[in-house]
Design brief:
The two termini are 20 Å apart. By secondary structure, the protein is of the alpha/beta class. The strands form 3 sheets. A 7-stranded parallel sheet has the order 1-4-5-6-7-8-10, sandwiched between helices. A two-stranded antiparallel sheet has the order 2-3. The protein has a single domain, classed as TIM Barrel, CATH 3.20.20.70. It has helices at 11-19, 75-87, 112-123, 142-152, 168-173, 180-192, 210-223, 240-250, 261-272, 302-315, and strands at residues 22-28, 63-65, 71-73, 95-102, 128-135, 157-164, 196-203, 227-232, 235-236, 280-283, 293-295. Bound molecules: iron/sulfur cluster. Iron/sulfur cluster (SF4) is lined by residues 34, 36-37, 45-46, 49, 53-54, 105-106, 136, 162.
Length: 326
């Protein structure tokens, strides 16, 4: 199944198998906030979260406030704007369509009636092949999972959960705001409802060793999630993490070490060779906004990062699943 130029099960390959051609994601903003930012759990957000929440690339221009000061997204306008953004890349003969990605903040943090109306107006569009919904596991009550399951019968629905780490100490440090047991319960309920689950993991959290990060990824393999997004920790200006980073830096404190590109490539390869062969690898690096990226600066050259990781697979003569279950 795996070859030196294709050592893991990429999202691109998966989409081609599902939809018969090239698929692009359209980032949307559903007009919701996050319980970790609005004071319900905390008002500071996760320590690494920039002002745009987890959706820095989602359209915000098309969100306006109604008379009750609720954010109302103008979805048709957002779709048009997002299609225009990716249209430069399209032209390939085998273009299949789009996945609508509700990316900004927590996209199930609203009542079911609102969510149903929001998601239906997107999923019913002809060129939309499916939905990807980024959210938190503590914002998926049974009626919301039931709604996603109904939508999943119209077109595929992927639920993306930001776990970041399985370790409770790290979770407290990043102010994630829920314990691992909540995540695990939600994954099981989503799987029981027939939904695809994609989990975000951050690599390089302060205080985590290589073995800690491997343990998180092995855990997700055992849990049977369908996909994983490996995100390099980005330190973005304006976040609490950035303040911590600057303080450590000025005090010459080594508690906050930043991985080199070679260390990162080696880590990603070690992780992927321990994941199940059928798990879809949605991402192997990050996509932080360069204008506020403080570290690691090498991550701004995405092409170089991807090439270095691919070379590492070849050098180690390894591939996804080679050490799965060891
Ligand atoms: S859960 Fe997402 S949107 Fe909410 S604070 Fe954390 S990173 Fe930001």
């Amino acid at each position: 199944m795996y070859t030196p130029d294709r050592p893991f099960y990429s999202l691109n390959q998966y989409y081609r198998e599902c939809f018969g051609g090239k698929v692009y994601k359209l980032s949307l903003n559903g007009g919701m906030t996050c319980p970790n930012r609005d004071g319900t759990i905390d008002n500071r957000g996760c320590i690494f979260c920039s002002a745009g929440g987890s959706g820095d690339f989602a359209s915000t221009a098309m969100v306006y406030s109604d008379r009750l000061h609720r954010n109302i997204p103008d979805i048709p306008a957002q779709l048009e704007q997002a299609r225009a953004r990716v249209s430069a890349k399209i032209g390939v003969k085998d273009f299949a369509g789009y996945i609508a990605y509700f990316q900004a903040y927590t996209n199930t943090y609203a009542d079911v009636t609102y969510l149903e109306q929001l998601f239906l107006q997107v999923i019913l569009q002809e060129d939309i092949l499916g939905l990807s919904v980024g959210t938190r596991p503590d914002c998926l009550e049974p009626e919301k999972i039931a709604l996603l399951s109904r939508l999943n019968r119209i077109k595929p629905v992927f639920v993306e959960l930001g776990l970041q780490t399985m370790h409770e100490d790290s979770a407290r440090f990043i102010r994630r705001g829920y314990p691992l047991s909540v995540f695990e319960d939600t994954v099981n309920r989503l799987k029981d409802a027939g939904l695809s689950v994609v989990v975000h993991v951050i690599l390089g959290l302060p205080g985590e060793s290589k073995e800690d990060m491997l343990a998180t990824c092995r855990y997700l393999g055992r849990l049977g999630v369908d996909g994983i997004k490996l995100q390099l920790l980005h330190i973005l200006d304006g976040t609490d993490l950035a303040e911590l980073y600057k303080r450590n830096f000025s005090e010459n404190n080594n508690n906050f070490s930043i991985m080199s590109l070679d260390e990162y490539a080696s880590l990603v390869v070690s992780i992927i060779e321990q994941l199940p062969p059928g798990m879809v690898i949605h991402r192997i690096t990050g996509d932080g906004p360069k204008r506020i990226l403080l570290a690691p600066l090498w991550s701004g050259d995405k092409k170089k990062v991807l090439n270095t990781i691919m070379k590492e697979f070849v050098m180690q003569n390894t591939w996804q699943g080679k050490k799965y279950g060891n």
